[in-house]
């Protein structure tokens, strides 16, 4: 049964309630079951561009990306919103929150006192110079001038707030004048670089080091990073590295895998796009692009790896699309959700040009797999594929999706959609 339009009467943006919130844990929230395949009808719509990131601050969803306008759920009222906006989690009402950000926002993280951290390719916020990193208030969109971190060049692609710290990953080589290649830990209030934390990422022969994405375990003790790098210090770590971050430094663990050493299509300095811890921290799942060239490589796949053992690791399972990219992953316990521009799951013998192989199942643009076997679950809402899903956000009662297209669950949903748990 289709959900009722709870926001039909919301014809004007509303202010954000005056409540405080602390940053939540960064790993995905556990769900008791798989979400419904019918998205709610009250979410607003992004009318152009791409949604790259989602964050939850109290009961407010913050949406970041590269876009210029949004509309309410009924599509009767349009608002100018450049690269960022916010709406109510439970009613879809668009907030008055509208900071001026002059470039794409690729990442968001919940901040203290009803604020949000921004990461991206911007150079200024509300007219003030602050490259790549910023903190803004959700009450009025004002920039925290006390948070002074800025990258030297490039962008910030991944953020995670944890206690008094903010982790940031991207293409930068220095933050606030202190050399850090692709990954940094900052004081959450001041943005001052934690000088005891240095992952020492390096990429001999690569054009530049890039952390494409990272995740922090629920207990805050482990950080898994993926991207264009080949070493951490003197240790070989091809595109993926696991660190112990529970203490004062970034301590490389003995965990490693050679599964991503084989190259995919020429031109990919990294083909890993997103990584997430399971809610209990016992395993990770990596989503990848790369143009599959054989069933033995992990191009265009999702792969599970256990994290509680040291030494060389092989994937527990691999989900292969047969030549289409995966960009986003969320892990809730009963399901691993995957998004990209894939056409099929369970397709190790299919190819991009020749169609599905034996056993392949249709899962256009979004789908879910069994966390134990990696095989496709029945959940199949479908979406218009476009370039692909770029962001998932798991809340206690919903799975939110950010992308670049406007059809989700066989309904119109402009670049943002939300699947409820049954009964939510």
Question: How would you summarize this macromolecular structure in one to three sentences?
Answer:
The protein is mainly β and 424 residues long.
Structure description:
With 424 residues, the protein is an all-beta fold. It has one domain (45-420): 7 Propeller (Methylamine Dehydrogenase, Chain H), CATH 2.130.10.10. Helix content is 0%, strand content 38%. The chain is built from no helices and 39 strands. It has strands at residues 45-46, 50-57, 60-66, 69-71, 78-80, 84-88, 105-111, 115-120, 124-125, 128-129, 133-137, 156-162, 165-170, 174-175, 178-179, 183-187, 201-202, 210-216, 222-228, 231-232, 235-236, 240-244, 251-252, 255-256, 272-277, 283-288, 301-306, 311-312, 317-320, 326-331, 336-340, 344-345, 361-362, 366-369, 391-394, 398-402, 407-408, 411-412, 416-420. Mean pLDDT is 93; it is low at 1-11 and 18-25. InterPro entries: Delta_60_rpt. Residues 1-20 form the signal peptide. Keywords: Signal. This is Delta-60 repeat protein.
